[in-house]
UniProtKB/TrEMBL annotation:
<feature type="transmembrane region" description="Helical">
    <location>
        <begin position="81"/>
        <end position="100"/>
    </location>
</feature>
<feature type="transmembrane region" description="Helical">
    <location>
        <begin position="112"/>
        <end position="141"/>
    </location>
</feature>
<keyword id="KW-1003">Cell membrane</keyword>
<dbReference type="InterPro" id="IPR022791">
    <property type="entry name" value="L-PG_synthase/AglD"/>
</dbReference>
<protein>
    <submittedName>
        <fullName>Uncharacterized membrane protein YbhN (UPF0104 family)</fullName>
    </submittedName>
</protein>
<feature type="transmembrane region" description="Helical">
    <location>
        <begin position="237"/>
        <end position="259"/>
    </location>
</feature>
<feature type="transmembrane region" description="Helical">
    <location>
        <begin position="42"/>
        <end position="61"/>
    </location>
</feature>
<feature type="transmembrane region" description="Helical">
    <location>
        <begin position="12"/>
        <end position="35"/>
    </location>
</feature>
<feature type="transmembrane region" description="Helical">
    <location>
        <begin position="153"/>
        <end position="176"/>
    </location>
</feature>
<keyword id="KW-0812">Transmembrane</keyword>
<feature type="transmembrane region" description="Helical">
    <location>
        <begin position="279"/>
        <end position="302"/>
    </location>
</feature>
<keyword id="KW-0472">Membrane</keyword>
<keyword id="KW-1133">Transmembrane helix</keyword>
<dbReference type="Pfam" id="PF03706">
    <property type="entry name" value="LPG_synthase_TM"/>
</dbReference>
Amino acid sequence: MTSGKYRNFFTPIFGIILLVTVFSVSNTDAILASLGNARLELVFLGLCLIQIQIILSALRWCYTAAQLDHPLPPASAIADYYLGSFLNMVLPGGVVGDMMRAARSRSADRKWSIPVLAVLLERFAGQIALFFVGGLGFILWPFLDAELRPSEALALVLAAIGVLIVIAAVSLLIWLSGSLWWRNFIRKIGRSITVCYGLPYAWLVQGVLSLTIVISYIAVFAMASVAIGAPLPLIGLITAIPLCLLTMVFPITVGGWGTREAAAAVLWPLLGLTGDQGIAASVLYGAIVTLGTLPGLALFIWSTSRRR
């Protein structure tokens, strides 16, 4: 319990320090100018896309829970997903909203394991889709970027293959060693994974929903970059943006602030843009996502007042 309290204290501090560091080594005036001149119509369109993301994510949660014999009313699931998304953006760690969803979806006659598992597997489907798009982007990078020299393209392909081989080899060794708790954990939830992802048409439903949601995330980030005057090339949409989004997975900041901007500052120059433009696009993306989840705050206030 104590370690959790310390983690919740240091998480926002770390994010603030990282964000301040990123701004201190950048041209703050240029970043603020880009944000001040952002195209509002694209910001509004991004806000609309966030609503679609949340609704589709809630429907994916409903489908995953139904596969585990834990049906959820779609209206309640959408409301809880709004609230959970808002909490994940404003509270340390980015998992408080998911814990809240599991708690609110639990019925009195069911164990905690099923609601928690439904939330876990629903989020896992999204991460798989994001890794898939990002991995595909790095494989295609040498073929889509005409400015790469043949030696650079070959180096990228070999690096991608090497990373895949190392990950596969390490995973196999760990699995065969049988010394880690997650081996038994995966075995215990193996049936749930099969039901949610592997049974006839389950993989198709999960895949279509998850890829659609990931594409919408990428579209919002791309709109943010266009809005501040720094449109990304096609290869950037499936490499730089997924990498920035993946930095938000780690529960070390609040809402991904800091890690996302640091990644954008490094990745945007690789695509012919500037690090300042990457930071501005990332800040605008974070603002769009946070504003897009504000209905969750309204739902929280309404539900609290209703209980009182």
